[in-house]
């Protein structure tokens, strides 16, 4: 036997907020579109992507660290209002789903 397992490898990404590695499916992909951070849950939008846990804690850490402009390699601040609304909605749904 070669010691290899037959289980498929799960792609991992690093959260730009907390800097922890997690499965790609657990993170939310963010793309910069015309100076705005846009959530890309399907992962199909073109361009560079940055990943963040869908939690306000990680989003706030990423904003404080100015991680999005660095990840997208753009100058200046990016508008994150739409992204914040999406993450808040995801947290609300997650809290309602757990008893």
Average per-residue pLDDT, rounded, comes to 90
CATH class: Alpha Beta
Give me the CATH fold name: Hypothetical Cytosolic Protein, Chain: A
CATH A-level architecture: 2-Layer Sandwich
Radius of gyration: 15 Å
Work out the helix count. 3
CATH superfamily: YlxR-like
Describe this protein with a few key phrases.
single chain, 99 residues, alpha+beta, Hypothetical Cytosolic Protein, Chain: A, three-stranded antiparallel sheet, 3 helices, DUF448 domain-containing protein, YlxR-like_sf, YlxR, YlxR_dom
Structure in words:
This is DUF448 domain-containing protein. Residues 13-77 form the YlxR domain. It holds the Pfam family YlxR. The chain is an alpha+beta fold. It is built from 3 helices and 5 strands. A 3-stranded antiparallel sheet has the order 4-3-5. The chain has a two-stranded antiparallel sheet with strand order 1-2. The longest helix is centred in the last third of the chain and has 17 residues, at 81-97. The protein is globular, with a radius of gyration of 15 Å. The model has no long low-confidence stretch (mean pLDDT 90).
Quick synopsis:
With 99 residues, this protein is an alpha+beta fold. Helices cover 32% and strands 20% of the residues. The strands form two sheets. Strands 4-3-5 form a three-stranded antiparallel beta sheet.
